[in-house]
Design goal:
Radius of gyration: 12 Å
Shape: globular
Number of strands: 4
Number of helices: 2
Helix content: 10-25%
Amino acid sequence: MAFLGDVEYQPDAKGTAEAVKCPLVDDWITPVDCMENQAIKEQYIPARFKVKPDWKEICSSCPFRDY
């Protein structure tokens, strides 16, 4: 496993993240899931990403946000 900041990820052969252990759900997601959630209106973000009370802050401070 590898880390970017304090977020764990699974790198591919080139070192690019194939999966990220999302701090919002404490589970593995693909970087595409993260990018899609940033590109849509808040009301369409799946509920599983909005369970934690400070989910917006967690998301905005994630080092993979602009990966």
